[in-house]
Amino acid sequence: MRNTRLDEMEKYILQNESVSMEQLCQQFKVSMITVRRDIAQLQRKGTIEKIYGGVTARKGEQLTPFDVRRIKGREAKAAIAARAAQFVHDNDTVFLDSGTTTLHVLDNLSALHNVTIVTHSLQAMMAALPYQNLNIISLPGQLYRKTSSFTGLDVIRFLKTYNISVAFMGASAFSIEHGVSNSSPLEYEIKMTAMQRAEKSVLLLDSEKFGRTALLTYAQIADFDAIVTERMPAPEYERACRDAGTELIIAELPTHAPDGGEG
């Protein structure tokens, strides 16, 4: 019961950005003592901050709406996903994270047989529909519009029951100091659970996200079997991957013929 309340309280604060302690008491019909205890636990998680008379969502790398992220750097994302898709084989069970890069993996699985897609991403479910060779398992939860994905305790509970062959993960940022981080607290535990259930975890990350830090670190370099990007990162990242035993893969971008027209 308390875990459910904590999940809902966290979601309420994140959606409203700042709320008073009295609001939380009224919203969740609990005493001030209970609210203070719950807030203390959420503070330890790192998703919220206490302010005078209330609480506020922590500000980190801002989460951009899904449709905006999907358009940005589309060519690089498609190349990264095409290379990452080579990790999938017939009869595999694949977890697809809610990132815009992971979505492109689906475009590269049509030649395989009996592949099962497990995902909480609404966009991934819709994109997988035309492919008759793909079985789709949708994880239940409450729709979070910014990431176009389902979140909450039900997603985690169901995800824990599946054995995953390979998990394709996205991230908001990646730095040597802070590891692989994400801007959405609502997806933090989903990401960690998916990797725990997977035999192999592959991070799909465009080069712009290297050297940056987002709100919550959900994994370190060594937690991934491979990291796929479209451009060779700085030498320290290459060295860190080598030291961690993580394969660093550079996806090949398509070459464009020069424009022969005028202007």
TrEMBL record:
One family name in Pfam for this protein: DeoRC
Domain HTH deoR-type: 2-57
Species per Swiss-Prot/TrEMBL record: Candidatus Fimadaptatus faecigallinarum
SUPFAM superfamilies: NagB/RpiA/CoA transferase-like (SSF100950), Winged helix' DNA-binding domain (SSF46785)
InterPro entries reported in the protein's UniProt record: Carb_Metab_HTH_regulators, DeoR-like_C, DeoR_HTH, NagB/RpiA_transferase-like, Tscrpt_reg_HTH_DeoR_CS, WH-like_DNA-bd_sf, WH_DNA-bd_sf
An example Gene Ontology molecular-function term: DNA-binding transcription factor activity
Name of this chain's protein: DeoR/GlpR transcriptional regulator
PROSITE patterns xref list: HTH_DEOR_1, HTH_DEOR_2
